[in-house]
Amino acid sequence: MTSVIDPELLAEARRIQVRADRMVTDVMAGGYSSVFRGSGIEFDEVREFAEGDELRSVDWNVTARTGRPFVKKFVEERELTVLFVLDASASMAFGTSPPAAPRRAVAATAALFVGCVAFAAARNNDKAGLITFTDRVERYVPAKKGRNHVLRLIREAMQPPVGRARTDLQAALDYAGRVQRRRAIVFVVSDFLGVDPGSKLRLLAQRHDVIAVRVRDPFAAGLDRAGGDVAALPNAGLLHLADPETGRTGLVDTSSRRVREELQRRWRDERARLLDACRRASVDLFDVPTTGSVADPVVRFFRMRELRGAKR
User: Fold this and answer.
1) For domain 7-35+79-308, which CATH number applies: 3.40.50.410, 2.60.40.10, 3.40.1350.10, 3.50.50.60?
2) Whole-model pTM?
C-alpha cells in the first residue's frame, strides 16, 4: 500500500516532475527510443506461403490441416517495460552541500533520475514500475503506462530513506526476477555502498537488460580521483563518524596520512569489486552525480549504447 506523504514532500515531487519533464523535452528526446527498440518479436498471424519465404517459417500444423503451405508471420514487439529497483536504505540520505556549490542529496538525485527515465518511457508509450528496497522490499509498484503513473513513481521514489535500514541488494534482485517475468529494462539505482550483488545480478541479467546506476556525491567521486596527496580526504583532525545503516560510531584520525590512505584504498577496492561484478554479469554501469543535470549522464549513456548497439 502506498504510504501517505506530507505536503512538502508532495510539493518536492511535483518540482521533480517539472524538472524531469523539461529534461526529457530538451535533452533526452529520441535518445531513449533509439536505444531501447523493443524486447524481441512476437507472433502476428499465419499466411499462405509466397515465393521468397524461408522454409523454416512454415507452420507445418496449419499446412497439414489445409493441404496448402502456410508460414508464420512475426512482428517486432515495440512495447517495453522499464523497472526501477531503487535503494531506500539509510545511506541514501547522504549529501554534502557547501554554500558555494549547492547539491542534491543522493536520494533526491535518484528520484530525479527515476522521473527522467520514466517520462521518457511514457513518451514512448512504454510501461514503468518501481521496487524500493532496504534489507527487505519496501514497496512494489507494478508497471503501467501514463504520465499520472509517472508522478506516482516519483512520489514513491521521494519517500525518505529508511533510518537505520541496511541494504540487501541480492534480495531485491531476486524479488525483481520473480515479479517481472516478461523481459524488461531494469535500472538498479543505488549508491552501492557496502553491497554485494552476488550471483543474483548475473541471474537477473540473463533474462532482462539490467543497468546499474550509481548515484554519487562529488565528495565520493573525489575519493575515486584523489591522487597521491589524498586530497579528497581533508586533514580535519579527530572526527566522530557514524554508520547510518548500523548505528555504529567511531573516532577517525584524519590528521594521519596513513589513515587517510587506508580509507581511500578501501573505498577504491569496493568500487573495483562492483565494477568487476557488473562486467562478469554483462551489466552496464554508469554514474549520476548529485550536482548538475541528471539528464546529461543519461544522454551520454544512451549515446554509448546506441554506438555499441542496444542489447536484446
Assistant:
1) 3.40.50.410
2) 0.77
